[in-house]
Specification:
By secondary structure, the protein is an alpha/beta fold. The chain folds into three domains: 161 residues, FAD/NAD(P)-binding domain; 115 residues, protoporphyrinogen ix oxidase, domain 3 (Orthogonal Bundle); 107 residues, Alpha-Beta Complex (Polyamine Oxidase, Chain A, domain 2), CATH 3.90.660.20. 33% of the residues lie in helices and 22% in strands. Bound molecules: flavin-adenine dinucleotide (FAD). Flavin-adenine dinucleotide (FAD) binds next to helix 1, strand 2, helix 11, strand 15 and strand 19.
């Protein structure tokens, strides 16, 4: 490979989740050498797993993509997926709080009541005492809590709006995607606008009143065949790439002027490596680079599970319009949320049935992992029944368990990632959910940067 004269550059992409697939595809568009992709499991997609119950798409992983950046829209267009796009039918969702499902008012997802306190008051999510504490924020002196650097979303929110707001609103809403209490999450990474407000103004509520103009809703989408369609199309578009599934990479080490990759295929040499695996897997693979490997190992992960139920019509009728609900951990349930898939997505329709997905798992709530699939489904059905009063039993259920699925962006995450990037030698690129965002669109954006960096380095060799 490194012979003079006839040299073709080679790149290894490790990990066949959305990050690895997107990186391989985007690199392949601008790089003329050869690309090999290694995926440890027998299938591509990583956390993306679009199952079926009858004709309905029953997602075991992500069910929606946020069109947050142009790279995602370009990718959808390039892959000819525009006609496959489906959008949620409702953005209305609920919180299970104080014995009832209560509509979530707009403007709460940034960590503070951006829509003012009246909608929050009307929602009844907080007790009268909790509401008084929120309103008292306007009287508090300027906070010094974030002056020394990053803090947790929980600390920040608690200091301004009280602990009930933190438990009943910030935990499920801010921690929802990451299945994690807001006390574990970095404000700089996940609530930057709240952090900025706390730093720059005496009162968050008073400074938020100055914001005018309509709020834009976030454009979520999926595909007719579920998010798995993106994986299928990417894999098809990667036809020039050597894809090795069932191939675990055990180590990546600098050597021979490039990189030595060890897997079941033996030792292979590459000019550049894009590692698109979870941080703990990258830490193992890169153990010869001690400092880098040790920092990667400090990124914690949460294990989660979900069960997709199919109920016969009449056996599930929440009597509410919407896409589902979230459950704050302080309610003491195993369930962290529930998505009414067949109400939310046209791709989850199953005539005569309702398709519903229940989630479990946070860093402090791991009881679900002690139950077998049948017991887990039965438990979550029981909790759902207690909340929405399902009449009968589910006709079928599909359990998906994800071990160490979601990275926790703890306080200091951005500095940690900056340190990791600094320690990463030229020719090695780390990408994936662990670094710049957990959602699919953030993964695609980060993968695109990794592909660009690799392409520009190789063009200069
Ligand atoms: C239940 C659930 C619901 C979610 N819902 C949403 C949602 O609705 N919207 C959204 O935007 N995001 C959602 N997410 C988050 C999102 O799905 C993930 O963050 C994203 O898919 C991660 O992609 P990735 O490629 O970085 O990592 P992964 O998908 O984890 O892919 C990494 C791949 O690397 C492989 N690998 C690991 N080690 C090795 C090795 N040594 N050698 C070779 N291969 C290796 C693994 O087998 C895996 O396939 C959800 C996640 C979960 C778990």
């Amino acid at each position: 490979m490194f012979q003079e004269g006839v040299r073709t550059h080679k790149v290894a992409v490790i990990g066949g989740g959305i990050s690895g697939l997107a990186a391989a595809y985007l690199l392949g568009r601008k790089f003329r050498g050869s690309i090999a992709l290694y995926e440890a499991s027998g299938r591509l997609g990583g956390k993306i797993l679009s199952n079926r119950i009858g004709p309905a798409v029953a997602e075991g992983g992500p069910d929606s993509i946020v069109a947050r950046n142009s790279i995602v829209s370009e990718l959808v267009r390039d892959l000819g997926l525009e006609d496959e796009v489906v959008r949620p039918r409702s953005s209305k969702s609920y919180l299970w709080s104080r014995g009832r499902l209560r509509p979530i008012p707009q403007g709460l997802f940034g960590g503070y009541p951006a829509g003012g306190i009246l909608p929050l008051l009307r929602s009844g999510i907080l007790s009268p005492a909790g509401m008084v504490r929120v309103a008292a924020e306007v009287l508090l002196p300027r906070s010094r809590i974030a002056e020394g650097g990053d803090v947790s979303v929980g600390q920040l929110v608690r200091s301004r709006f009280g602990d009930e707001y933190r438990k009943r609103i910030a935990d499920p809403l801010m921690g929802g995607l990451m299945s994690c209490s807001s006390d574990y999450l970095s404000a700089a990474a996940l609530a930057p606008s709240l952090l900025e407000k706390v730093r720059s103004s005496r009162s968050v509520l008073l400074s938020s009143r100055k914001v005018t103009g309509p709020r834009q809703s976030v454009p979520f989408f999926s595909f007719r065949n579920g998010t798995g369609e993106l994986v299928k199309r990417l894999a098809e578009a990667c036809s020039g790439i050597d894809i090795h599934t069932g191939e675990t990479v055990s180590s990546v080490e600098p050597g021979s002027g490039g990189w030595v990759v060890r897997s079941g295929r033996g030792e292979e040499y590459f000019d550049a490596v894009i590692a698109a695996v979870p941080a703990f897997a990258a830490s193992r693979m890169l153990s010869s680079m001690e400092e880098l490997s040790s920092r990667l190992s400090t990124i914690h992960y949460t294990s989660v599970a979900n069960v997709v139920f199919s109920y016969r019509d009449g056996d599930f009728s929440p009597g509410l319009e919407g896409s589902g609900f979230l459950v704050p951990e302080c309610e003491g349930l195993m369930m962290t949320g529930c998505s009414w898939l067949s109400s939310k997505w046209s791709n989850a329709e199953y005539p005569g049935h309702s398709i519903v997905r229940c989630f479990a798992g946070t860093p402090d709530s791991t009881g679900w992992s002690l139950l077998d699939d049948e017991a887990l489904a039965s438990w979550l059905h029981g909790e759902l029944n207690a909340i929405v009063g399902t009449g009968g039993k589910p006709e079928s259920s599909l359990v998906t368990r994800w071990d160490r699925a979601l990275p926790q962006y703890r306080p200091g995450h951005r500095e940690l990632v900056a340190g990791i990037r600094k320690l990463t030698p030229p020719g090695l690129y780390l990408t994936g959910a662990a670094y710049g965002g957990v959602g699919l669109s953030s993964c695609i954006a980060d993968a695109s940067m990794a592909a660009d960096s690799a392409a520009s380095r190789l063009s200069s060799l």
